[in-house]
Amino acid sequence: MIVAGCDVGAVTAKAVVMKDDVLLGYQLMRSRAQAVQSATQVMTGLLNRLGLSFDDIDYCVSTGYGRFIVPFADENVSEISCHGRGAKWLVPTIRTIIDAGGQDTKAIRIDGEGFVRDFRMNTKCAAGTGRALELMAESLGVEVGQLGPLSLNATEPVVFQEPCCIMTEIEIRHRVFEGADSADIAAGINDITARRILHLARNLGITKDVGLTGGIAKNIGVVRCLEQALGMELVQFPEDPQLVGAIGAAVFAADRARKLAR
Fold it and tell me: Which parts of the chain have pLDDT scores under 50?
């Protein structure tokens, strides 16, 4: 049985293909202007690389912001549910997932089967999201992927207090103009991002084990800030943390395919 999951997010589109509960491959790309284009391009690229066609897929589940208009999906499932199932499939002991995505951040608590029991989501502000991190990196004059490694060289991290990421961007530009060390500013950016994420997670309540998903999970600076504040290590996913939602979608697809085969 071959199934697929397609996660069309605000910043990236991800596709995975599984066969008999084994991950065959994945593809990740920057989202295009239209969700249909993103979904089709990322899935077509993956299938071509695997030597498969859409006809070979027994069932496909879409998730993410563009999930409702993925033309080849048999069903769509919310990204919250998919992150729960995907994280549990990868790390069976996980119970709390912090999904720091491009457009929003979610704290999710799951049961032993990976099904959602409660969640919190930021809805009023972009602070603590991947896009906010990108904008703050631009204000510093570096690529967002540099923020983590750069911050490890900080000696006197800047402490940002503004609750709004736009106001923080303005302060970053002032700090740069004043000649503040880039590593110290990067450390401050990671710290304030982690604080925004923690506010959401603590509002939900944190149950071990805890894992961070989404693009921000690749920022070692944010990860370390979260670990220090929580007093625990975050779980290490065996696959790219940006793929967790797409993997969860494929797990749902496998469930549906098995039911149809009975």
Answer: none
